[in-house]
């Protein structure tokens, strides 16, 4: 459909928008934003259509609108200062479109080139003009910020599980619209998860054994085949001999030796990690769809998804966005998994090299590298920068209250598994959730924490100052 005159009720086609470059206040339409349109050049490359549009027309352009708002001062006081100033008298309200005309295509507004001599012409090299910049500096962006916030709230409401709320008492910014919430990891090019036929379950366990909560005996549960041996458990003489031989040689089958189920099955911490896993960070194996223990088995926690209410909030000490729980969390309680694009090590290196941002959202899936003999190049990496879930916004602390653990549903796939966050202590409602980006196990501390930042720079590393504020703060992050 072509040839119609767009009205304020027709949305701008985001795919035809190059960028938003300025804003002004129209006494009738309210806030208006200057769009630079994508065009197929015909003649002078400085002759590119631009046009002003009200916020009501920009419902599909939230990401580009947010990109523009992010170029403006973000402090609440700075915004208020602009709102209190008078509108520039130099702005010409009568000009709506420059270097082209507006058309309606497929029910949406687009900007196209026009050779009509009556159309106001502006050289792209001289736009945005000084007068436009002056007015923009004095004009509020309340409606645009509200549009972006509305879209973020819509996305948060679509996340499975209990409510994820949003709070910002610092400024009028919103979390990035360039980030997409996903329910499952995305497998990138060259990444392969083990085929579903490789999944095997526990066949000796039953759904109504003992307490009626699935698996009951760790020695019989096939899903614990590769789980850590519970060597503090009383063993039969032949079991003890076999275990000692495995420890000496590093080889052997631990099936049938005493293991430990990962979660409490009763009491006040039911469903929470037991100390055997919480303190020592052994890989956690949950039962799966091939098991005979049933969907209510006590080993199934992470696979049921997030069960806690969370809040995404803007931190007041320049640490960006953070996450806090709205309910009290118990020590060992599951919070949520880390989601993203699973990519190859080579692709991760390429992205890291081209990333000019200080933040990194790469997480190596290397838990089984040593035991399986995988090289660094064979490992996969989870990238949560543009695709992921709410855990992408959990901040670092040198003294954290959460930790990430490996959780597998297919014990035969050592390269693709879950990264799950658990509380490492009781956490009060509205206390920020944090984890240590260095992800060191107990006893793994080395001399890295004491290295001078200048020495790190010489080695090609870029130290980032830590703002966690904890008593044990290491002062720098080595991302």
UniProtKB/TrEMBL annotation:
Domain Pre-SET: 201-305
Signal peptide per UniProt: none
Region (Disordered): 72-94, 438-467
InterPro entries in alphabetical order: H3K9_Histone-Lys_N-MTase, Post-SET_dom, Pre-SET_dom, SET_dom, SET_dom_sf
Domain SET, first and last residues per copy: 308-438
SMART domains: PreSET, SET
Pfam families found in the cross-reference section: Pre-SET, SET
Chief place where the protein resides: nucleus
Protein name: SET domain-containing protein
Domain Post-SET: 462-478
Residue ranges with Acidic residues bias: 438-452
Cellular compartment(s): Chromosome
UniProt KW Transferase keyword: yes
Keyword entries, A-Z: Chromosome, Metal-binding, Methyltransferase, S-adenosyl-L-methionine, Transferase, Zinc
UniProt lineage: Eukaryota, Fungi, Dikarya, Ascomycota, Pezizomycotina
């Amino acid at each position: 459909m072509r040839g119609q005159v767009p009205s304020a009720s027709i949305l701008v086609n985001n795919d035809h928008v190059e960028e938003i470059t300025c804003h002004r206040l129209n006494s009738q339409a309210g806030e208006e934003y200057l769009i630079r349109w994508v065009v197929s050049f015909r003649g002078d490359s400085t002759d590119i259509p631009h046009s002003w549009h009200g916020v009501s027309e920009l419902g599909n352009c939230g990401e580009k609108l947010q990109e523009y708002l992010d170029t403006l001062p973000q402090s609440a006081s700075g915004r208020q200062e602009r709102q209190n100033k008078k509108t520039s008298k130099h702005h010409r309200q009568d000009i709506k479109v420059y270097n082209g005309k507006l058309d309606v295509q497929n029910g949406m507004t687009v900007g196209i080139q026009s050779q009509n001599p009556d159309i106001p012409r502006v050289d792209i090299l001289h736009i945005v003009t000084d007068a436009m910049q002056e007015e923009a500096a004095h004009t509020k962006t309340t409606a645009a910020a509200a549009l972006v916030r509305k879209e973020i709230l819509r996305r948060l409401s679509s996340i499975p599980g209990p409510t994820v709320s949003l709070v910002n008492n610092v400024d009028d910014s919103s979390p990035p619209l360039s980030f997409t919430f996903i329910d499952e990891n995305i497998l990138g090019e060259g990444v392969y998860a083990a085929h579903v036929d490789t999944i095997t379950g526990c066949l000796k366990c039953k759904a109504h054994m003992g307490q009626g909560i699935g698996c009951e005996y760790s020695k019989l549960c096939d899903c614990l085949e590769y789980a850590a041996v519970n060597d503090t458990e009383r063993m039969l003489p032949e079991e003890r001999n076999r275990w000692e031989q495995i420890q000496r040689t590093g080889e052997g089958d631990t099936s049938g030796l005493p293991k430990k189920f990962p979660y409490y099955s009763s009491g006040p911490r039911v469903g929470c990690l037991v100390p055997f896993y919480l303190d020592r960070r052994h890989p956690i194996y949950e039962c799966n769809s091939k098991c005979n223990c049933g969907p209510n088995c006590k080993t199934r926690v992470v696979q049921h998804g997030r069960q806690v209410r969370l809040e995404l909030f803007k931190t007041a000490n320049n640490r960006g966005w953070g996450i806090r729980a709205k309910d009290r969390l118990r020590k060992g309680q599951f919070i949520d998994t880390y989601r993203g694009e699973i990519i190859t090590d080579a692709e991760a290196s390429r992205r890291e090299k081209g990333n000019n941002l200080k933040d990194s959202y790469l997480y190596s899936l290397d838990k089984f590298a040593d035991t399986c003999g995988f090289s660094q190049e064979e490992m996969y990496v989870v990238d949560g920068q543009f695709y992921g879930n709410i855990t992408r916004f959990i901040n670092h602390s040198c003294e954290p209250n959460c930790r990430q653990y490996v959780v597998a549903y297919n014990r035969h796939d050592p390269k693709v598994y879950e990264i799950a966050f658990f509380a490492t202590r009781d956490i009060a409602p509205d206390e920020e959730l944090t984890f240590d980006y260095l992800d060191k196990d107990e006893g793994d501390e080395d001399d890295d924490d004491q290295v001078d930042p200048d020495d790190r720079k010489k080695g090609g590393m870029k130290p980032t100052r830590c703002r966690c504020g904890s008593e044990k703060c290491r002062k720098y992050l080595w991302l």
